[in-house]
Every structure is written in structure tokens, then in C-alpha cells.
Fold this sequence. Notes:
By secondary structure, the chain is mainly alpha-helical. The protein has helices spanning 3-6, 10-18, 25-52, 80-90, 104-111, 129-142, 144-158, 168-177, 183-196, 200-204, 210-215, 222-240, 253-260, 268-278, 288-296, 306-316, 322-335; strands at 57-58, 63-64.
Amino acid sequence: MPFSALSREPVIAALAVSxxxxxxxxxxxxxxxxxxxxxxxxxxxKRRIDDISxxxxxxxxxxVPLKSAVITPDIPVKSSHAKRxxxxxxxxxxxxxxxxxxxxxxxxxxxxxxxxxxxxxxxxVRPSPEECAxxxxxxxxxxxxxxxxxxxxxxxxxxxSCGTKRDILDGVxxxxxxxxxxxxxxTRAFENLKKAFPSWEMVVxxxxxxxxxxxxxxxxxxxxxxxxxxxxxxxxxKERGSPSLEYLRESSNKEIQRELLRFPGLGKKTVSCVxxxxxxxxxxxxxxxxxxxxxxxxxxxxxxxxxxxxDYLNSVIPSTLKRxxxxxxxxxxxxxxxxxxxxxPQFPPKDGTKLHCPLKNLSSLKDIQMVKVKPEKK
Length: 378
């Protein structure tokens, strides 16, 4: 093989120079195969870069599209001349300004640190408002009792002429009692708690959690929940002079979240439920059923945590649909074989049949674009 053919490849040429102009035929073949392997790895790396570079991603500082970032695979050449020749041939920037040798995995990990990119491009944001409206419409036909209940709750919440509203601490505690149990058990536990302790001032005076545990025993995890309830009441008494959260009534959602999240046992989902059901705010809590169905519908990437799903879905779901959509997805996740965890719903139809799930092949339905979305209140 003539040396002039090898000199077209910059890495081979650089390596040839390092041998002081003398390269034997076996060495030429070895260098040729090495360069072929390097080119193959480069093509594979570029394909991986294209796969992960759908949205613009934050690297460090200003937003930089991932395709424009300099990502170079590990270069299996120790010679600095050969490495500079390789970068000059394959890098989109001058080798003096390129990173030395950074693996694709390390760069990819940096691109997802401290940022929450949308799961799809802006042109294909899911769920779209029409898609949300379609889901509410179709699931409302399957579960009309859910829409009736949400309407009743809204009337009870805001329909009082004297303006009385549910106590915020009541809402926090009842939501906390609903964790890891059924609605029936949590409702009974809260009723027993209020019978035993009509006011929260009575809870503050307790020196142990024994009576609290006895009152909420039917809700499960009584010892843990009783300790958290007592801690919240005593903290508020110490800081505010009374066990009450009414000072948050007129606060913004972010201020309420910041205040409540500092208490043990209150996570984003619990606080979001308080905002939605107690304060009537436009919120979309993400519980286990909503989280699972959102991943099945590919509304969120499968690697999203529940908190990341909450942040994203709250940013794209229309405010006018959040309450109904949340309640319908929960009920549907409990009854539908297709949407239930491992295909085993908690409350399947009593007649033994399976629900006809309208969420199958949701993204391919053309009827979605025909659904009108109620405009949001300004």
C-alpha cells in the first residue's frame, strides 16, 4: 500500500511522522485498521449525540443546543500530535479550543444536571390542551360519578354565602392521613381524630402520641402519622402562638409550598392536594395512579421522578382541567385493567368485565383536535 494513500488520513500522517519517516508494511496495515476502528467509533458517537440532542440543554451558564456542544469520544491515541490531528479532522471547532478527551457519558450527565428539559420539542408538547380535554371528556363518560363529586365539592367549597371555608390545618392533616391507605380508611381516621380532639389546641397539650395513635389507628401507620401531627401542631404553637395555618390563606402557591414542605411528612404531592382541595387553587397533584398513566401515555419520559412529573405536568395542563383530570385519572387507574399497575386494578368492575379504555392509542386519535378547550380565566 503506497504511503501517499495513508497520508490522506491525518492521524496516520501524524503517527508516521512520529516514526521519523520510516514505516514498515505491517505497521502500515496496523495503523490502517486502527484508523478504521476510530472512524467507526466516531460515527457511532455522532449517532448517539443526535439521539440525545432533541431539546436544547443547559450545559453550564447560558443555554446551548446540544448539537453545537463539543463532544469528543475517548481518543485511543497517546501521541499529542496524533490527537491534535484527530481533533482537527473530526471536531467542529479548532483543536486549541476543544476539550482534551471527554467521554460522551460524562458530557451527557452534565447536560441534565440542575435543569428540567421538556420531554419533547415545543412543536410536540404533550399533553396538549386538546388532548387533556379529550381525556376528561372520555373518562367522564366512563366515570360520571367523579365529575358529579368534583362539582359538589366545588360548590361546597365556594358556595357558602357567609364565606366560611375549610380550615387549612384540617386539610393538611386529612391529606396526611390519606397517605398509604384507602379513602374510606383515611376518612374514618380523620373523623375519629376530630371526635377525640375537637380543637388543635387540645393536641398541643399532649405529652405523648398514644391517644393520637388510638384515634387514627384505622388509617394505618398510626405511630408515624401521630408523631408528625403532634410535631406540626407544637411547631405552629411555638412559632405563631396557636396551632393554625390560616396565615397562609392569602399567600401565593409558591409561598404555601415553601412553608408546608418544611414539615416532616409533607411532600409535593400532599401540599399540592392541600392547594387543590382545601384552598381551591389550580393544581395538578401527581399521585401513583397519575404518575403511572402519564408514563403509559408518554406524557412524561419514563426516567422522570414523581416530583419532576409534577413540575412538568403543572406547566402544560390547562388550569381549567386540572381538578377534573386529576380525579378522573385516579379513579380510572383504580378500575381499568389496561391502566392499573401490573394489570390488576384495585376496584375492578363488579360484574367481572373489563372497561373499554379510551386511553389506548391516544396519540394516534384524530378526534382529539376536534375537542374544544374552555379558555382559562385571566
